[in-house]
C-alpha cells in the first residue's frame, strides 16, 4: 500500500476528528459551524483516499491498531485551546497545500480535494491575520512548528519553511502515536466496535 | 428496452436531498448515462467529498434505474472535471428563487462583487461565514435589503 497516501488519509481523518471536538463549544457560533464543516470535509477526504487504497474504507479507517496509523503527531495533539488550534489549522493547511498540489498531476482526486481545501485555507488565513500580533498565537506557532514539519516528507520541508517564513528545525516525525492518540482511537472506533453484526448505515 | 433519454427523464425527478428545489440533473452532478443490454451505467460526482447525502443520491439513482426495469451500475467519479459551473441555467434560477445565491463562476470565485443577493439582486453583500449548514454553502448578508442568505460555494 502507498504509505504516502495512507499517511495523508490518516492525517485528514484525525485532524477532522480533532477539529470536530470544537462542535458545540467553539468561542463563537460561527466557529462552531466552521469547525464542524471543516471536520466533515477532512473526513470526506480521508474516506475518498481510503477508497482508493482499499475496497473496505471503513475497515481501513477503524479496524487497525493505534500503532498502525501513520498520521503525523501534529494532527494527534489534543488542543482545547483556541490559539493552538488556529496555529495548527494554519500550519496544517499550508503544509497540506504543498503535498496536495504536488500530487495533482498523477492523482485526479487530489485536484478535487485541493479545490475544497481552498476554503479551509481562507478560513485559517483569516484567523492567522486576526491573531498574528498576539503573544499567545506566536508562542503556539513556535511550539507547533517542529510538528508541522513532520507532516511533509523531507524534500518538501523547505517549501513549508519559506511559506511560513521560518527556519527549518528538527521535525517531530510520523510513527510516534502516544496515549492521547490511543484515547482518541478508542473513542473514534467505539460505534463500529459496538455495532451489531450486519448493521447497515 | 430502456433508453438513455428515459433514464435522464427519470433522474430529473430526483431532488437534491439537502436542497430539494433542484434536481440532480439541474445540479449537473450526473456526468454520463450509458445504456447497453438492460444495464445502465451512471457516472456521478459529489459536490463535496464529505457530502453526507452521497449514499442517499447513489441509492436514489439506483432505484430509478431499477424502476425502469434495468440493472444499475453507479460509479462515483472523484475528480476536478466537475464543478459548480456545470449547474444548469434552470438550476441556477431555481436556487435563486428559493433564496440560495447560485455559485459564482470558477474564474471569479471570490470577488465579492459577484455575490448578488438572491432576494433583491444587490451586490452590496458581505461574507458572514465561509461555512454553513452543509459543506456546499456559505453564509452572506445583504446590506441593501438586510436579509441574510445562503451562498452556494464555487467548486
How would you sum up this structure, described in words?
The complex is a heterodimer of chains A (about 200) and B (about 160). Chain A is mainly α and about 200 residues long. Helix content of chain A is about 70%, strand content about 0%. The radius of gyration of chain A is 16 Å and the shape is globular. The mean pLDDT of chain A is about 95. Chain B is elongated, with a radius of gyration of 17 Å. Helices cover about 25% and strands about 25% of the residues of chain B.
Give a short synopsis of this structure.
The complex is a heterodimer of chains A (201) and B (155). Chain A has 201 residues and is an all-alpha fold.
Largest sheet of chain A: none
* Helix count from the secondary structure assignment of chain B: 4
Spatially, the strands of the biggest sheet of chain B line up as 4-7-6-5
**What is the C-alpha radius of gyration of chain A, as a whole number of Å?**
16 Å
Which percent range describes the beta-strand content of chain B?
15-25%
Share in helix of chain B: 10-25%
CATH architecture designation of chain A: Up-down Bundle
Structural class of chain A: mainly alpha
Amino acid at each position: 500500500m502507498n504509505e504516502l497516501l495512507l499517511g495523508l488519509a490518516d492525517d485528514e481523518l484525525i485532524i477532522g476528528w480533532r477539529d470536530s471536538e470544537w462542535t458545540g463549544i467553539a468561542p463563537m457560533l460561527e466557529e462552531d459551524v466552521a469547525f464542524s464543516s471543516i471536520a466533515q470535509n477532512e473526513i470526506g477526504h480521508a474516506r475518498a483516499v481510503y477508497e482508493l487504497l482499499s475496497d473496505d474504507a471503513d475497515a481501513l479507517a477503524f479496524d487497525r491498531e493505534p500503532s498502525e496509523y501513520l498520521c503525523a503527531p501534529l494532527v494527534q495533539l489534543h488542543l482545547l485551546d483556541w490559539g493552538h488550534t488556529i496555529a495548527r489549522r494554519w500550519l496544517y493547511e499550508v503544509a497540506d497545500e504543498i503535498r496536495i498540489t504536488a500530487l495533482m498531476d498523477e492523482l485526479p482526486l487530489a485536484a478535487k480535494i485541493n479545490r475544497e481545501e481552498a476554503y479551509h485555507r481562507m478560513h485559517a488565513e483569516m484567523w492567522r491575520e486576526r491573531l498574528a500580533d498576539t503573544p499567545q498565537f506566536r508562542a503556539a506557532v513556535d511550539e507547533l512548528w517542529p510538528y508541522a514539519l513532520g507532516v511533509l516528507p523531507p524534500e518538501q520541508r523547505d517549501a513549508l519553511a519559506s511559506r511560513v517564513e521560518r527556519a527549518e528545525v528538527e521535525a517531530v516525525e510520523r510513527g510516534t502515536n502516544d496515549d492521547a492518540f490511543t484515547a482518541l482511537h478508542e473513542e473514534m472506533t467505539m460505534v463500529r466496535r459496538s455495532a451489531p453484526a450486519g448493521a447497515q448505515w | 428496452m430502456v433508453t438513455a433519454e428515459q433514464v435522464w427523464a427519470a433522474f430529473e425527478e430526483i431532488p437534491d436531498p439537502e436542497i430539494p428545489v433542484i434536481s440532480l440533473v439541474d445540479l449537473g452532478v450526473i456526468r454520463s448515462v450509458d445504456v447497453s443490454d438492460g444495464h445502465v451505467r451512471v457516472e456521478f460526482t459529489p459536490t463535496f467529498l464529505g457530502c453526507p447525502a452521497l449514499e442517499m443520491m447513489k441509492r436514489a439513482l439506483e432505484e430509478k434505474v431499477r424502476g425502469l426495469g434495468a440493472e444499475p451500475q453507479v460509479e462515483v467519479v472523484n475528480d476536478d472535471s466537475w464543478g459548480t459551473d456545470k449547474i444548469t441555467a434552470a438550476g441556477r434560477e431555481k436556487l435563486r428563487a428559493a433564496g440560495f445565491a447560485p455559485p459564482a463562476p470558477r474564474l471569479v470565485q471570490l470577488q465579492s462583487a459577484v455575490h448578488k443577493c438572491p432576494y433583491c439582486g444587490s451586490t452590496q453583500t458581505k461574507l458572514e461565514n465561509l461555512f454553513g449548514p452543509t459543506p456546499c454553502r456559505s453564509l452572506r448578508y445583504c446590506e441593501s435589503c438586510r436579509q441574510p442568505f445562503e451562498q452556494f460555494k464555487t467548486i
